[in-house]
Amino acid sequence: MTSGQYSDKDIRHEASRRRTFAVISHPDAGKSTTTEALALHARAIGQAGATHGKAGRRATVSDWMQMEQDRGISISSAALQFEYRDAVFNLVDTPGHADFSEDTYRVLSAVDCAVMLIDAAKGLEAQTMKLFEVCAHRNIPIITVINKWDRPGLDALELMDEVQQRTGLLPTPITWPVGQSGDFRGVLDRTSGEYTKYTRTDGGATIAGEDTYTAEAAADLEGDAWTTAVDESDLLEMEDQNHDQETFLAGKSTPVMFASAVLNFGIHKLLDLLVDLAPPAEARLDKDDEPRPVDDPFSGFVFKVQAGMDSNHRDRLAYIRVCSGVFERGTVLTHASTGKPFATKYAQQVFGRDRDVVDEAFPGDVVGLVNASALRVGDSLYLDKKVEFPGIPTFSPEHFMVIRAKDSSKYKQFRRGIEQLDHEGVIQVLRSDLRGDQAPVLGAVGPMQFEVAEDRMTNEFNAPCTLERLNFSLARRTTPECVPTLARERSVEVLHRSDGELLALFSDRWRLQGVQKNHPDLVLEPLVVS
Ligand code: G4P
């Protein structure tokens, strides 16, 4: 069977070239710098800095709200596509701010691999661990990059121990640093035994110098630093810390490399590693765990919905990850949850402010559909052969606020706004008969989601609102039978979430433990990632 001008074989070939991945890290570990460096090496852009949103540089990372610009952080996310060797990379951008993480979690449903970026001086930080857990839960293979090796930091072997102890993954370094942190001379390639020496270039804005030497030449050149690297690599060898593709893909081991993104050291090797080891776009499991082969007719799912990106384009974008077939602009697809047709006249590839019209896309690619008001996060779209992919999980909210319209004459706008933010997954909306429809509770993973909600309610939906913090920090799934018992407990409240889940809110862990102790039969399940 063919799809337009492409045969099944063509589609399988295109899918096999795709590497769809995200960089997960704690803020400041160097995600933006690494993104720039990767794109620079792959020659998608001319000079480092083009995708970075910081002062003095051309801002393209979708800093679509004034608030975001003021803070200099990226709230929205999109995908950057570039080619390297014979591969096509889709780097799905993740918002980096610690407070704004639900979005980041969702983005991970669209990727086949993650690059875990660790600051050499700080080791595994909180946000990295949270994101790692989501990847681990979804069995996403992880490549670890120890960044900022040009700055004094922890010992390389110590870092390996930390990775192993905290993530449970066996670190299997592909490269090993020559020179301790702060004295980054180059890397020992543990597969070939050769030495890659790095040379700084001005400001790191162009590709760093890389020269390869044999072990003998490296020993002459670097002396003790080389000997130490070889000894440490031998130690790893004795512990069987060598790359193994099977355990990597199974999420049990993690290849490790050392880099300095700001100096462009190690970036080339990271790209090679992604081409050689990261999984391509492959058959994706549907709701019933049936694989959808990549050469089946088109299918994809929405992993992110975004509105108000740009005041010049007051539209709504739904980002879809292509799972099978070819996406061809202009095709009428079917929206799996409603069975209704969905016209794809407006499709764009978006990275920051630059929008390119997309005419076709292959498995692994990300496409932004414009004016997609009917689409929600988790929805599937297909052509000809029906398929529905599993919904995207929501996460356990940790912050709660009551929202009310400031102006009661704007109640219609208020309702419409709340509904929209709920659909987009900006916040979770919780209701109860007791609180009524005029004062729903908003739940969020990070407090900044409330600021986004408030800003959009005021400016986009013309419904100024007030928010009042509630003293809860923990939600558990419960059942209707448990409600009477929970209702008698102090500082516990039960609310309905819009997806039908019944959530019991607690002020803290101790309160939850107290209730569980008094009523061991109560259903109080953690809202884990599904
Ligand atoms: P993020 O997106 O993960 O938040 O991090 P980002 O790339 O913005 O990097 C955070 C800071 O760390 C930046 O410095 C950046 O230049 C620096 N950095 C990134 N990678 C490396 C590296 O390999 N070595 C060293 N020494 N520094 C690195 P900044 O001063 O906050 O910003 P800027 O003025 O350089 O833009």
Automatic annotation (TrEMBL):
The gene is prfC. Increases the formation of ribosomal termination complexes and stimulates activities of RF-1 and RF-2. It binds guanine nucleotides and has strong preference for UGA stop codons. It may interact directly with the ribosome. The stimulation of RF-1 and RF-2 is significantly reduced by GTP and GDP, but not by GMP. Residues 16-282 form the Tr-type G domain. The keyword Cell wall biogenesis/degradation does not apply. Keywords: Cytoplasm, GTP-binding, Nucleotide-binding, Protein biosynthesis. It is found in: Cytoplasm. PROSITE patterns: G_TR_1 (PS00301), G_TR_2 (PS51722). Belongs to the TRAFAC class translation factor GTPase superfamily. Classic translation factor GTPase family. PrfC subfamily. Pfam families: EF-G_D2, GTP_EFTU, RF3_C. GTP binds at residues 93-97. Gene3D superfamilies: P-loop containing nucleotide triphosphate hydrolases (3.40.50.300), Peptide chain release factor 3, domain III (3.30.70.3280), Translation factors (2.40.30.10). Its main location: cytoplasm. InterPro entries: EF-G-like_DII (IPR053905), EFG_III/V (IPR035647), G_TR_CS (IPR031157), P-loop_NTPase (IPR027417), PrfC (IPR004548), RF3_C (IPR032090), RF3_dom_3_sf (IPR038467), Small_GTP-bd (IPR005225). This is Peptide chain release factor 3. It comes from Brevibacterium epidermidis.
